[in-house]
Amino acid sequence: MDVPSNSSEIDEIRQSFEQARKAWPGVELSFDVFAARVTSGCTHVPDLFLACACSEGDPVALAEFDRMFLGCVRDAVARIDRSHDFVTEVQQILRERLLVGANAKIRDYRGNGALASWVRTAAVRTALNLRRRSNREAKQESSFEAFEALDPEIALLRQRYMPEIDAALRRAIAALDPKERLLLHFYYIDGLTLAKIAGLERVGTSTVFRRLNAATQTVLASMKDELSLKLQLSTQSLDSLIRHVQDDIDLSLSQVL
Description:
By secondary structure, this protein is mostly helical. The protein has two domains: 7-129, no CATH class; 150-256, Arc Repressor Mutant, subunit A, CATH 1.10.10.10. Helix content is 74%, strand content 0%. The protein is built from 14 helices and no strands. Helix 3 (45-55) packs across helix 4, helix 9 crosses helix 12 and helix 11 packs across helix 12. It is elongated and about 80 Å long. The model is unreliable at 137-150 (pLDDT under 50).
């Protein structure tokens, strides 16, 4: 926002600015930059002051942010994965996303809540995304190993008709009811457990399982119908292809969704 023109507002912001400077001795920040970020909902002025200075690349501010905030996300991240390498990678990703470049996310902070909570939320989200990506890569590696172990004839068919298989899978998913697509997204993309989905949908876990299985079988049946017309394979070969897709359903659906 623009710097306020009303003198009383400017005086009030100036007073907040001076108080924040005392909270962070050694951090350099111009009043104009600070005033441009202040909103009526700002309740954590010292935190906003530090965030503004980080946005401007002040080395003291960056060091303080790293020490006080990035260093404190370890406990939150450790609930997802306690390994040192995982926590360190999350911190590195978070540091880059929040502090580096013209689109650094620290520029979005407005002081409406505690900076520590804001960073902790970003850290947990980053950790979950990293874990989900690692799980997908592990599934993909497992899929490649399984592919190599396929019957050579089925492996060749899978490789030859991969574009048709993927296209059929996309159309089958698109033809689902929106609620069914959302259910698949919850499970295969967001990585939610059946219990978590049941809580969101306010139904029993067994109900979620039945709906998930029904949606998956609908997708496979639709794929089989389309591929049987396009590929003109023998029933045995087509069934083998569909079974292989079903074995890799986690990977296939996560890639398409």
